[in-house]
């Protein structure tokens, strides 16, 4: 006869809750890939068999952990919406609200913020992940109404949030990263919400240069093959599964071939990150679509540039290098020694778009970094912001049109 499964109401000694809290702790510090029955039970000071007894299975325990995270987020957001009501009802204040929520969420509620990202990574667009995304969408729609913005502008607030709710978990250079975030929020509000134009401070450009995100340096084909395999291993097994042997098996090579190009695990991870950045650049320059837009390197007008990046919103899934890029970044936030590698991922957005804009609309490196960086972040976050919609593709296409329209108007005004 199977053992009974305790529920929260029947859990008199608190064991079910202890396991859930332990699961949340393991996920927040090490990632969902590390959330095994053994690791969770050890964190709870219990035997692994307690998971089946109290929750039925590890999968049910993880689901209960994410569900509680959703409920905790809903409670937190009620307090935030009331606090934001003290700000003026203007687009400029909406930029302040955007920055404040991102910072408070990723710093003050860091464990919960990581739990959200790990939930997205495991079941984007379904189950608890979809409910959680819809919660954030509805919150930003309420914020938009509070600041006199239309619903599409509220959706754009949500899109920007989905990008930086992940990337602001970085702990690479807090002062510089906070400056870059503020600069991006202000530029976003100016271009897409109609806020008052403000002079950029050069923080994003500085972050890109110091992180090394601009020096894209190409990897030779053999090393790129290994780097892509390393990224796949991290995506499937987490950082704990990243070994030279595992990468060699995934790439169909000998272990010696892998160590020839990447001697240490740190070199391998850095190579995986560089490889994903390079693959994204190649895809942006002339990705494979049934309807091929002009390559970004060949664009002759801003309109052609928009055509070159517009079709990505119509795809059913984000490009695999983009999902691996997010997986790699999520892996780096669990390891303080990999903060610099994470910064490369965070600040490598928009490189190809920046180069194209430099030819079409010459400007300072700082202004080009800001323009291309924010645009690229919005476009890359579309899948995540729209993943819980009844018709995700329609929602992405509608939002991408608004993004591109306002972007072109902003460039002409500038």
Structure, explained:
By secondary structure, the chain is an all-alpha fold. The chain has three domains: 15-60, Arc Repressor Mutant, subunit A; 66-204; 221-413, Tetracycline Repressor, domain 2, CATH 1.10.357. The protein is 71% helix and 0% strand. It contains 20 helices and no strands. It has helices at residues 15-30, 37-44, 49-55, 58-84, 91-108, 110-123, 127-146, 151-167, 174-193, 203-211, 221-237, 244-251, 255-261, 265-286, 302-310, 320-332, 339-346, 351-360, 365-385, 392-413. The longest helix is centred in the first third of the chain and has 27 residues, at 58-84. The N and C termini lie far apart (73 Å). Mean pLDDT is 85; it is low at 1-10 and 284-294.
Encode the helix/strand succession as letters.
HHHHHHHHHHHHHHHHHHHH
Q: How many angstroms separate the termini? A: 73 Å
How would you sum up the major sheet? none
CATH superfamily of the largest domain: Tetracycline Repressor, domain 2
| Structural class by sheet pairing and helices | mainly alpha
Low-confidence stretches: 1-10, 284-294
Mean pLDDT over the full residue set: 85
Count of individual helical segments: 20
How many domains comprise the coordinates? Answer: 3
Which fold name is given in CATH as the topology of the largest domain? Tetracycline Repressor, domain 2
Highest-level CATH class of the largest domain = Mainly Alpha
Determine the strand fraction and express it as a percent band: under 5%
How many whole angstroms does the radius of gyration measure? 22 Å
Share of helix, binned: over 70%
GO molecular function: DNA-binding transcription factor activity; transcription cis-regulatory region binding
Pfam families: TetR_N
DNA-binding region: 243-262
Protein name: HTH tetR-type domain-containing protein
